[in-house]
Write a structure and sequence with these properties.
By secondary structure, the protein is α/β, with parallel strands linked by helices. The chain has twelve helices and seven strands. It has one domain: P-loop containing nucleotide triphosphate hydrolases (Rossmann fold, 3-Layer(aba) Sandwich). The two termini are 34 Å apart. A hairpin with a 6-residue loop joins β3 and β4. The protein has a seven-stranded mixed sheet, sandwiched between helices. α1 crosses α12 and α6 runs parallel beside α7. The longest helix is centred in the C-terminal third of the chain and has 16 residues. Bound molecules: adenosine-5'-diphosphate (ADP) and magnesium ion. Magnesium ion binds next to α1.
Amino acid sequence: MLELPRPARRRIITVANQKGGVGKTTSTVNLAAGLALHGLNVLVIDLDPQGNASTALGVEHRSGVPSVYEVLLGEISIADAAARSTQSKNLWCVPATIDLAGSEIELVTMVAREARLKEALNSEAVEQIAPDYIFIDCPPSLGLLTVNALVAAQEVLIPIQCEYYALEGLGQLLRNIELVQSHLNPSLWVSTILLTMYDARTKLADQVSAEVRSHFGDLTLRTVIPRSVKISEAPGFGQTVLTYDPGSRGSMSYLDAAREIAERGAERKTA
Ligand code: ADP
Ligand code: MG
């Protein structure tokens, strides 16, 4: 396996899009696994009460296991909650349990409610894992959990499904990101757009990808994730597609995308 550059400084990437079913979780776990396969230390924070990222990484997330919920409450550290993925020895996941579902409301009355995750990631305990990359998988909403993810990160990765209405709602997401930039996290930026569920048989997929590239330019990864049954089957086996079917197109595409992300680095291009 070809070595990938270790980032000069830890990269924290939030995977966000308030639309459900666009490939946030799938992209989070497979990109994370791709980077881990190259020997990098990767930590996934599951911030969706559904716990789909935890499932795909083979990490237990029934109610009661130490999870991101207790981390946000300040009761335990990230290291206390992180479990090693069954997929790789240098891939970790802080699971989400159903307890997280009530937290959007509970957080409202808390001190520094938008910065709870950031505080947890800044703590010394994270160095027990010493991640090169942290990926945060967001729920399909723009509530306080997503705001916590945007405040904690440097970069945003937006998966866009090559389907009808793909760009609908993006304006709202970008405005929210700008709000967080101007009030809470000035160093946040959209570093990566990833086209997912590309179906080469349809004209529409090409139209959507052309439109996305004309709008976002170089932020859009060259690699496009194809629609693939293997990708959708993998979580049912508590796996990423990288272990479920290593030679498949879906697996290769996520490996390519992970390499592109690593090679592009974190630096913001100035025009
Ligand atoms: P989100 O996290 O944005 O809600 P998911 O990653 O859970 O989206 O994906 C939604 C559904 O689509 C899931 O059932 C997933 O397995 C499936 N899926 C995601 N990416 C692909 C793909 N490239 N090809 C086929 N199915 C996919
Ligand atoms: Mg999801």
